[in-house]
Amino acid sequence: MIRISLSVVIALLFSTAVSAQDRDSEHATKTLEIYTHIIEMETAKNLGNVPAMARYLADEMIGAGLPQEDVEVLAVGETAALIARYRGDGSSGKAPILLLAHMDVVEARPEDWERPLDDTFFFARGTDDNKFGVAQLTSTFIRLKKEGFVPNRDLIIVFSGDEESSMASTEVLAYERPDLAEAEFALNSDAGGGSLSDDGKAVGYRIQTSEKTYATWELTAHNPGGHSSRPRLDNAIYDLANAISKIQAHKFPVRWSDTTIEYFEETGRQLGGELGETMLQFASDPENEAAAERLSSEGSYVGNTRTTCVVTMLRAGHAENALPQSATATINCRIFPGIPVADVLGSLKKAIGNEAIEFEEIWPPTVSPVSDLREDIRAAASEAVHVRYPGVRILGHMSSGGTDGMHFRNAGIPTWGMSGLFMNPDNNFAHGLNERVPIKAFYGALDHWSIIIKSLASD
Ligand SMILES: [Zn+2]
Question: What radius of gyration do the chain's Cα atoms show?
Answer without folding.
Answer: 24
